[in-house]
Amino acid sequence: MDWSNYMDISLSLAEEALEVGEVPVGCIFVDNDSNIIASGRNTVNKTKNATRHAEINCVDNIIKAGILEKLSNVTVVVTVEPCIMCAAMLIKIGCTNIIYGCANDRFGGCGTVLAVPGLENCKIQGGLFADQAMHLLKQFYKGQNPNAPESKVKKKTIAP
């Protein structure tokens, strides 16, 4: 199956996140009939809750819609490799297919940093539109995150 159109949607969600000052990650959940059953983007800065990743927000949307039975065998299409927390959650809900854009070199839970136990039962495909996903991340990280804690704010130094 060609997942390009689905990744385009996830990239649009990531762009929305970037526009409102969030780390640009977008995600959709697709059922076995190729229907999008949930979409989400990062809302960590808005909520001041570090767990509000795009994948978690998708699950919340499914819970709100009352369609929990659709979670098993779902395909996740996300712009950045799920972090360890999200990868573990996706395995627990019965995800069978994860398609991501760029690798997550700091927190990747699909093999880049850690292969979360249970992933052997999940088909994983990375690299779909990786350049576009990485470009969005670079746009975010070249700026200053106004919501970053003081201890994490980038300090500008001037050489003597």
From TrEMBL:
Keywords: Hydrolase. InterPro entries: CMP_dCMP_dom, Cytidine_deaminase-like. GO terms for biological process: tRNA wobble adenosine to inosine editing. PROSITE patterns: CYT_DCMP_DEAMINASES_2. Pfam families: dCMP_cyt_deam_1. One of its GO terms (cellular component) is cytoplasm. GO terms for molecular function: metal ion binding; tRNA-specific adenosine-34 deaminase activity. Coiled coil: none annotated. Residues 1-112 form the CMP/dCMP-type deaminase domain. It comes from the Eukaryota. This is tRNA-specific adenosine deaminase,Cytidine and deoxycytidylate deaminase domain,Cytidine deaminase-like. It comes from Cinara cedri.
